[in-house]
Amino acid sequence: MPTTLDIRSGLYYDSVALMQVSAQVKATEGVDTALIGMGTELNVGLMREAGFDIPDSAAPNDLIIAISASDDAALTSGLAAVDEAFTRIAETATRSLGATGAEQPPLTVESAVERTGSNLVVVSVPGDYAGIETIAALDSGNSVLLFSDNVDVDTEVALKRRATEADLIVMGPDCGTAIVAGAGLGFANEIKPGRIGIVAASGTGAQQVSTLLDAAGAGISQLIGTGGRDLTHDVGGLSAKQALRALAGDEDTDHVVVVSKPADAAVVAEIEVLAADLGIGVSWAVLGPDSTDLTASVEAALDSCGFDVPTWPTWGTTGTTEDLKQGPLVGLFCGGTMADEAMLIAAETLGPITSNIPIGGADKISGPELPMSAHTVIDFGDDGMTQGRAHPMIDPSLRLEAIAEAGGSAGVLLLDLVLGHGAHAAPAEGLAEAISAARSTATQAGRELPVIVSLIGTQADPQDFSATVASLVEAGAEVYVSNAQATRRAVSFIAPLNQPQRDSTSGDDAQSGLNNSGTEGLPARPGPSSHEAAAQTDVAANSASATNSASATKLRGLLSAEPKVVSVGLSLFADALRAQAIPVVEVPWQPPLGDTNRLFSVMSDPRRLAANAQALEAMLNAGAQLVGLRPARECLGLADNEFLHSGPPLEFERASGPMRGALAGAVVFEGLTDTLEDAEAGLADGRFRMAPCHSKDAVGPMAGVISPSMWMFELVDPVYGNRAYCSLNEGLGKVLRYGANNDEVLDRLRWMRDILGPVLAQAVAAHGPIDTKYYVSQMLASGDEGHNRNRTATLLFLRDLMPDLLALDFASADLAEVCRFLGANDYFALNLVMPTCKLAMAAAKGIPGSSLVVTMARNGTDFGIQLSGTGDEWFTGPAQVAEGLYLGDYGPEDANPDIGDSAITETAGIGGLAMAAAPAVVRLVGGDVAFAVETTRRMYEITAGEHPIHQIPILEFRGVPSGIDLVKVLRTTVLPQINTGMAGRIAGVGQVGAGLVNPPMDCFTNGLESLGQ
Amino acid sequence: MPFLDPNSAAVLRPNLPNASVVTVNAKVLGLFPTGFYIGVDAYPWGQQILPVLGPDALQLPTGIQVPQLTAAHLGELRTEMPATITLSTAAAHPSVERVETANLCCVIVRTWRPSRVEPLDLLGPQRYSRDVVESIRERLIPGRNDLASRSFNLVRALESGIVQDVDSCVHALLGYGPGSTPSGDDALCGIALALRRTSQSVSRSRQQSLLTQRLSNIAFEARTTALSASLLRAAVEGYCIPEIEHAITDIACLGDGEDDSLNWVLANISRIGHHSGHDLLTGALAVLTPTEELTLVSPLEGTTHADDS
Q1: Which residues of B touch A27 (CB under 8 A)?
Q2: Å from B40 to nearest chain A CA?
Q3: What's this model's pTM, rounded to 2 decimal places?
Q4: Residue A878 sits in the same domain as residue A964
Q5: Tell me: the pLDDT tens digits for A604-662?
Q6: Does A35 lie in the same domain as A115?
Q7: Would A606 be classed as within a structural domain?
């Protein structure tokens, strides 16, 4: 038997691919054996056992193809099959890499988190909306870096409490710096790994501390930001405590440095106690009149951890301490904490420093204009200076102008320059030019202008650190890595001009690193005033509730796992993360609709998530069985003069043409008046009463008019016991549900009352209960979406009923007509699908706190929705006119606004929401196939889950999007998609087309108002 | 991996010349929908393989992660396409600085943190339930019918401490099966990971040391594929893809009757390769199964399995 052996080096295929090739080759006629595998020792042995002569040179990385066949021709065919199979695999792989089947982008944080398995969300949307996105992230199980500012304190506290309860952390608000699991978030430097963790309520302060630890060779393990207010009385250190717990549980952290601007003494004390309980050492780098500078704090921490305190690097220093006496100190800063530190240090020698962020009662200025003679420090990153422009670390132009102009008046110029991720990519050139310009101006005035720069950065930062230093030195600047040293150097040029004007209460402790508590680096603890004593009590009470547990936390693995980030807001952060090869998904964001505070309140409702989950579960579990047919008078208890209509409640005066036509036709059909005019008069004066179908557990398509003698499908949910009803479908053309009411229409209704209803009632009784939920699944698998395509369910119903129907004791002509009627009306089963959906939504009703939509219905005038959490209350807005395709010569001017209870199908996740299952529906309602698929994919962004049984084959059998969430609709501004028929505007015209329509957003904003109360 | 540094993360950049580094020739060895393999012949270690992983790829602990890598980038690559690996000579051990093909340049910017199986706290509440382990084992479909028995044999040999038996059983697994990560190697990885997970026990710790010591004597590259060799080395150190780490960790949290959670574990590992997830867990369960269960011997043991029948 001929055999062949092909050894191919350096080709890697997984076992699935090799199985596919093997199967294809084996299927070749005449091929006896086909062994295909990598040339490992064991595989080679097995091939040799099978009779193949494998050379010793075969190596584990070789792909060995061994074939035996009945003759040479078969062998050739087998080899050809190998190549063909490998080619097919390659082509398949190429196709799978193509652009087809692209997902819709995630529109909410929740969606992005679910898709990516992220563990951190970066929120940088405007402050008013930051709470909404943060709570969405927390509820999705992610910690948050909250960059946004202008978040009120109450919101901050609420978010941080929620995070702590969920074993997560909120870093922020106004948090610009963090380094988590090796990833720099926001403005962060590339710091070498070490075993010191940082908890920082100050962004640039944290950058100073971390870069100094890097320069000292110690490095850091993590840098957890908390937001600038965290250590205040109001916030109570909620995030700092959580960060401390996390660092205590972090294998890479031995010691913690807490960095902050002045902090609340009681909060500091609590953190001290917590640290002791956790058994982790803490150093403090808290700026204040009585506290050390940051460099001294870092030195103390290094000493505590057993590191040598280095001589901090400087460049371009002249060593001169010449007293220039030619002008004031001018400090122009990007970093707020750097500016604070400079003022605190300079004030010890020079007295109060004028500033836009003055300390200790110094004079305040509001803009970049410098006073002529006062010692001045300006923070260009302060909110007042960044309105309408980016932070100076990103856009340095305003500060550069000020630097260049300062040459005319400054005696010494003190600057900072912050490098790292997020900061300007190449800041040195512009700064060097500005320095040169300033010095040149001074020189022209016959003065020497010393320029001192504190450079916050590391050699590994994206900007070239060495080149930056060289550029600044060349421009004439002295460069320091310690802002404190830089400041003292700057002051030294002016000091003799000013006698020290230090506060008499602040002795030398500030320099020595000791405060009045005697603890190294610990901020002062003044005796509490009565207000503070109360505050401490409050803080203690706050802490006891959820936050002072002394057990370490893993923050769900945030500090140890590989970072995966979702970013909502500024692309700047996402770009900086991408530059670090960190997976990041951006969520396109726009302001949510509706009252923002109310939306936050609804999202904060502790019941909401569980309530939505409960509602969704009920909706998905609910079953539906057709158990019988009865006249509405009997099963709905309708009085003789009582008529039901679609949509929310409606007065006859506001009824549209088709609604009027249908109601009047029904009155005549019931024999209550002889003419349509009399009928309308009776409806207007209240002789004939009107109520929504939904108020009686019923649904009706289009006008949905139900009169006492009409036969109703009666469906039961065997799981929850609910019942739902729907009238029988009349077919297409001129029918009552479209507002037509001529004799042809009324005659058909009479036939339905006298023949169709009784026949179906007896047939269903003979058959027994029919599972209509099963119909829906079958429809979706067969290309129907359940609203405008119902062919499959109609035929299934006919198939199920036919044997029993034909055995009934009715005239054969009547039975034949019934079969013909059902078979000729593809919409017949719509009236079974609608109550099936109604039962699903009935199961989800009445769950307090739930924001899921349980009803969408239109009456031709108003569109109304009901929510699971708000009972039977309707939230309405004006019904829209559908856009779509028109019959004959009809056009948009002929169409009535949206009408019918059939949007219950969309409420339950089919119809327009499941258009991808029925691409052919676009021929009826407009759009193209891509639109149908994209629409369904988009609907997942506003729904709470997916149906386990109702699946869409083209989406790899993904469940239909289920449970429309009002909150998601408002946040994404994506409205549910509805397919619908269009009724003529004028009573009696009937159907004029079909198309696509959305609910008005008013329904949802109105619903929010009620839900939030 | 002795030559290429693993667990790096890279960004895509334009090609930039840099004279201060060493560049070696390599080639694209294989393409898959979410990444590709780069191979380089590195004396004296033989062929080394470096997985370059896109955002949706399994996070192989020995791979370079490139979150920006898209289908469009991969679509331009072909197997056997020339590539270069640029090594930094700044540190004592050379490390990969760039990976380049004709139309792609990946620049290493940081080290990422692969998932690692951590030893179970023996004093903690979590235990491996016999019933849970058994019910999972019954539902595993390994790539080779006798993989479980080969795995049990190794665990028995490790328990006996007889070095010759350990070597024999290791060799019965190494390189056993088709594909770029043979089933036997996957099972061996699972055994190594599970021994690390249970290494707080004195006996398991001793077995872990013995296995590590015996594996250190083997030139993996001579016995199996380069990819599998690198993954074996990672597994001995406790590193693996997150899905396996979760599975080994989660099984200890499961109680009897938690079918949903059990299904979840199985569903997740079933996504790993065609058999690899099941093969890995087959090996791991051989360690996690109580001792008295280890008498199981497959009726197919010793039979020839030449292909994917």
Answers
A1: none
A2: 10
A3: 0.81
A4: yes
A5: 999 999 999 999 999 999 999 999 999 999 999 999 999 999 999 999 999 999 999 99
A6: no
A7: no
Has the ipTM of the complex gone over 0.90? Answer: no
Q: Which residue has the tokens 């009920």?
A: A618
CB-nearest to A93 from B32, B47, B182 is B32
**pLDDT at A108 exceeding the cut of 70:** yes
Residue A93: pLDDT over 90: no
> Is residue A552 classed exposed, middle or buried when 0-12, 13-18 and 19+ CB atoms within 10 A define those classes?
middle
CA dihedral A46→A52→A56→A57, nearest 10 degrees, is -110
Query: Per the CB < 8 Å rule, is A581 touching B112?
Result: yes
Of A115, A229, A258, the closest CA to residue A170 belongs to A229
Question: One-letter amino acid identity for A667?
Answer: V
The number of domains in chain A is 4
Pairing of strands A642-645, A689-692: parallel
Average pLDDT across chain A, whole number: 89
- Asked if A15 and B274 come within 8 Å (Cβ–Cβ), the reply is yes
**Of B52, B48, B71, nearest in space to B60 by CA:** B52
Given pLDDT bands bounded at 50, 70 and 90, which one contains residue A926?
confident
Instruction: Note whether A791 and A681 are same-domain residues.
Output: yes
Q: Cβ contact (<8 Å) for B11 and A15?
A: no
CATH number for the domain spanning A173: value is 3.40.50.261
pLDDT, one tens digit per residue, over A318-347 is 766 555 557 899 999 998 899 999 999 999
Whether residue A125 is found in the same domain as residue A81 = no
Cβ of B66 within 8 Å of Cβ of A581? The answer is: yes
Mean pLDDT throughout B48-66? 90
Chain B residues with beta carbon closer than 8 angstroms to that of A102: none
Please tell me what DSSP assigns to residue A829: T
Q: Show the 3-state SS of A348-407.
A: HHHCCCEECCCCCCCCECCCCCCCCCCCEEEECCCHHHCCCCCCCCCCCHHHHHHHHHHC
Contacts of B112 in chain A (CB under 8 A): 182, 562, 581
My answer on whether A173 and A297 are in the same domain is yes
Options 3.40.50, 2.60.40, 2.40.50, 2.20.28; CATH for B6-112 is 2.40.50
Measure CB to CB from residue A97 to each of B10, B75, B305 and give the nearest one: B75
Domain that holds residue A404: 319-475
Residue in B closest to A63 by C-alpha: B179
For residues A275 and A334, membership in a common domain is answered with: no
**How far apart are the C-alpha atoms of B225 and B4, rounded to whole Å?**
16
- Answer yes or no: do A134 and A84 share one domain: no
Helix then strand then coil, in percent of chain B rounded to 5, is: 40, 20, 40
* Separation CA A528–CA A251 (nearest Å): 37
A211-253 pLDDT, tens digit per residue, is 999 999 999 999 999 999 999 999 999 999 999 999 999 989 9
Which amino acid makes up residue A983?
Answer: A
**Chain B contact present for A425, CB below 8 A:** no
Q: Is the pLDDT of residue A378 over 70?
A: yes
Shortest Cα–Cα distance, B38 to chain A (Å):
10
Which of A11, A20, A21, A38 to substitute to test the interface with B, most B CBs within 10 Å? Answer: A38
- The verdict on A203 and A155 lying in the same domain is yes
Would residue A987 count as lying in a domain? yes
Check residue A375 and give its pLDDT: 93
- Any domain includes A487: no
Domain boundaries, chain B: 6-112, 116-288
The amino acid occupying position A50 is A
> pLDDT digit string (tens) for A187-202?
899 999 999 999 999 9
Cis peptide before A126 (omega within 30 of 0): no
Per residue in A166-176, pLDDT tens? 999 999 998 98
**Helical axes A676-685 vs A657-669, angle rounded to 10°:** 110
A548 located within any domain: no
What does pLDDT average to over chain B?
83
